[in-house]
């Protein structure tokens, strides 16, 4: 038993584990710092959000550990994916027809047991990675290189999932979901002619979308608070007393923080100026309290997770490994870009969380489970390399 534990300990990807745990703890500290005024203004104890996040972190770490131990091949089995699809379908039925949904920021959230609120799209991002890895991986294993006709069926769950997320309505998360799917499709071993067709198709879709917007079709998408978000993106200072307030206050947080920040707990913007300092705008509070140094630490940690997963994908001998690693890397990378891009005015606000750092139990759980799968892939690859080395030494 002791020798088996030593063998497992030898194969753990410690850099990945250390960065993951560091970001969890760093996020917990920043949630505590950024949420105290928010909790008091909502007639809750000052550490209400901190305690909720701490419990969520423990559950998320447990999920990470379990996903690290169980071989990844079990997650891409059709039976597991079917169970996931049924669970997500039940969530959306509840959201649309049972009255279990709550309106928050113009979007529909599921309210569970009166205390847990979440969007089913968090589960959809997780299961689309598993679904595409299962379907595309099995076909690539069987055929070697794929043609476009081989993947038409895989587009069905992608389109259905995007439609469900848009119905929440959540255009930003739908865009991330589609981008994750597209990144997985890009990592397929295509036949050269089909890769060219995919590239031409992508350019055509982007061109058609641009023409649609130029001809005024964008007005169809600007319902609810989306027009306000677009206005705040185009000229936040003109709408500083309304839709642009969050972006302007975020700018002030970044400017005030400077290089090293005002110190932990010293943020002014969290005192009612930024409506969601512990969720959508936690990066702004990090910038104000820890400055550019804090931003580099956060983005460096998240960037490491993305690049590390991509390196594992590049070394993968099994296509399912490759698709899983690419899917998780693109998920974390794209969601980070969208969150930070919205807070800095690079892109319109979308309301998505910063992975592993923002307050939100279900988001933390899903990202942690996906990183656990990446850890399992890394352990498997290290075991394979060690076995090859031992075999080579025996033969020599």
Give your account of this protein's structure.
This protein is mainly α and 396 residues long. It has one domain. The chain is built from 13 helices and three strands. It has a three-stranded antiparallel sheet. Strand 2 and strand 3 form a beta hairpin.
In short:
This protein has about 400 residues and is mostly helical. It has one domain (about 15-390).
Short descriptors:
mainly alpha; three-stranded antiparallel β-sheet; 13 helices; 3 strands; 68% helix; 3% strand
- The Cα radius of gyration reads 22 Å
Coarse shape: globular
User: In which range does the helix fraction lie?
Assistant: 55-70%
Strand order in space, largest sheet: 1-2-3
Beta-strand percentage?
under 5%
- The sequence of SSEs as H and E is HHHHEEEHHHHHHHHH
Set down the secondary structure blueprint:
Elements: H1 2-11, H2 14-41, H3 48-69, H4 78-97, E1 101-104, E2 107-112, E3 116-118, H5 121-143, H6 155-166, H7 171-186, H8 192-214, H9 226-234, H10 245-257, H11 282-315, H12 319-344, H13 361-395
Antiparallel strand pairs: 1-2, 2-3
């Amino acid at each position: 038993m002791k020798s088996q534990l030593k063998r497992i300990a030898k194969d753990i990807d410690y850099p990945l584990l250390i960065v993951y745990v560091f970001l969890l703890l760093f996020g917990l500290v920043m949630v505590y710092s950024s949420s105290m005024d928010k909790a008091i203004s909502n007639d809750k104890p000052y550490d209400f959000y901190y305690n909720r996040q701490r419990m969520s972190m423990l559950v998320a770490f447990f999920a990470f550990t379990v996903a690290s131990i169980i071989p990844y091949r079990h997650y891409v089995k059709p039976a597991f994916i079917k169970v996931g699809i049924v669970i997500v379908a039940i969530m959306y039925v509840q959201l649309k027809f049972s009255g279990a949904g709550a309106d928050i920021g113009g979007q529909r959230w599921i309210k569970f047991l009166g205390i847990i609120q979440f969007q089913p799209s968090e589960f959809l991002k997780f299961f689309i990675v598993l679904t595409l890895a299962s379907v595309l991986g099995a076909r690539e294993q069987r055929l070697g290189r794929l043609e476009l006709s081989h993947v038409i069926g895989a587009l069905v769950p992608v389109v259905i999932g995007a439609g469900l997320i848009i119905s929440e309505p959540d255009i930003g998360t739908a865009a991330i979901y589609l981008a994750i799917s597209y990144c997985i499709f890009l990592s397929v071993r295509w036949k050269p002619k089909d890769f060219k067709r995919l590239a031409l198709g992508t350019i055509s879709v982007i061109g058609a979308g641009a023409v649609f917007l130029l001809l005024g079709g964008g007005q169809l998408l600007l319902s609810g608070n989306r027009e306000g978000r677009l206005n705040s993106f185009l000229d936040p200072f003109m709408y500083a007393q309304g839709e642009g307030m969050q972006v302007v206050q975020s700018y002030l947080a970044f400017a005030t923080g400077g290089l090293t920040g005002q110190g932990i707990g010293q943020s002014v913007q969290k005192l009612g100026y930024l409506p969601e300092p512990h969720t959508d705008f936690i990066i702004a509070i990090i910038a104000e309290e820890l400055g550019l140094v804090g931003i580099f630490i956060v983005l460096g940690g998240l960037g490491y997770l993305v690049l590390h997963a991509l390196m594992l994908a590049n070394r993968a001998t099994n296509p399912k490994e490759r698709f899983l690693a690419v899917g998780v890397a693109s998920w974390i990378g794209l969601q980070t870009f969208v969150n930070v891009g919205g807070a800095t005015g690079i892109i319109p606000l979308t309301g998505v969380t910063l992975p592993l750092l923002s307050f939100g139990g279900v988001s933390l759980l899903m990202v942690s489970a996906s990183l656990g799968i990446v850890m399992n892939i890394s352990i498997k690859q290290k075991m394979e390399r060690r076995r090859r080395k031992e075999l080579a030494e025996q033969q020599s």
